[in-house]
Amino acid sequence: MNNQIITRFKNIAKKISVKLEENILSDKSLKCKVVYGPVKTRRLGLVLGINNAQSKTCSYNCVYCPSGKTSCCSTFSNSCLSPYELYISVKNKLEEIKRNGQKVDYILFAGSGDPALDPNLSKEISLLREFGHKIAVYTNSSLIWNENIQENLMFADYVSLKVDTVSEDTWLNLNRPHPRLRFDHILNGIEQFAKRFRGTLATETTLIKDINDNADEIEQLSKYLNELKCEASYFLTPLFPPTKSFAVGPEPIVLEQLSQLIKEKVMNSVLLLESETEEFFATDNFEDELMGLLSLHPVAVDSVKQFVNNEDNLNTLNNLVANNIIKEITYSERNFYVENIEPNLSVAS
Ligand code: SF4
To answer: For residue 47, which of 128, 155, 126, 142 has the smallest C-alpha distance?
Structure first.
């Protein structure tokens, strides 16, 4: 008799738990588009992405940002999902990916803002460990001087730090930081973290025409990067339409000269001069997949069309365009879909 009661209670608890999970998914994660992908990346292979910032909250407002203008320039961010809600969303998404016969290489915290601003980052990483995937974080490094941020990042297996320049003037022009940030603190924080971190450390530098695309910048930067002794120093050019139209990659001739210099001067340098996000994969919900990715950056039209393999998806795509939810633009002779929104810029503390 007792066993029967226990079994009944267990079944009821299971049903409640399933219902709760369903509510969390329908109410929050899809609306916030927190979990996106999987997307194929050149650095990490197939990744499941996490973008847990409530809007594009970033401590920088980079001229080349592919996510559009920073809607809230801040050194603090509210997470969209709590750690447990995120855990459930990721669990469901991983099951869906598995059903589609795919295998994720990394769970990646990266998005339309700086994931290091998320106060729950270490808790989230600890919970997601259960799924057995490596965990990576791409941060803009602006708060790396803060001990709590360093501690949170220690939980990851792979950390990529943004280092576009070692010149303060260039930093101000290129990254347009929150006014309270101090450049010397950031550079010192990066050095400190590089010594402490036991996982795989990488840096990324975006080269922008007439801002940091000269030999002097690379010479200075190479001295700094070489001291960090990281696994790889990636150099990129913007491949998505930038926030500011002048923020384009160097002229081909300049890029050729710089590539040579970078190879000579920077230890473990890798030039990623082609799109990092190469493929778009639609799993069960084409619209959510697409809108999730578009909240981060424009998505190449050819890459989307490759996955519009049935009439439903084609209708969804056509409706999104017809209803002005997304639009098609051309950048660098490539067509992209972008979200049809123009967020307002505000500066908060
Ligand atoms: S490029 Fe990255 S660091 Fe710069 S504003 Fe955009 S999200 Fe922030």
So the answer is: 128
Tens digits of residue pLDDT in 155-208: 999 999 999 999 999 999 999 999 999 999 999 999 999 999 999 999 999 999
Looking up residue 189, the CATH number of its domain turns out to be 3.20.20.70
User: Higher-confidence residue: 141 or 281?
Assistant: 141
Give the range of the structural domain holding residue 333, as residue numbers without chain letter.
32-347
Query: Which of 70, 117, 203 best tests ligand 1's pocket when mutated (most atoms within 8 Å of CB)?
Result: 70
Ligand 1 lined by 58 (C-beta under 6 Å):
yes
Given ligand 1 and candidates 51, 54, 61, 62, which is best to mutate, with the most ligand atoms within 8 Å of its CB? 62
Q: Compute the distance from residue 236 Cα to the ligand 1 centre, in Å.
A: 14
Residue 36, domain member (yes or no): yes
Q: Is residue 252 part of a domain?
A: yes
Per-residue CA distances from 87 to 21, 27, 114 (Å): 10, 15, 20
Please compute the mean of the pLDDT values over residues 67-90 and round it to a whole number. Answer: 77
**CA quadruple 145, 183, 295, 109: dihedral positive or negative?**
negative
**Does the predicted model carry a pTM greater than 0.85?**
no
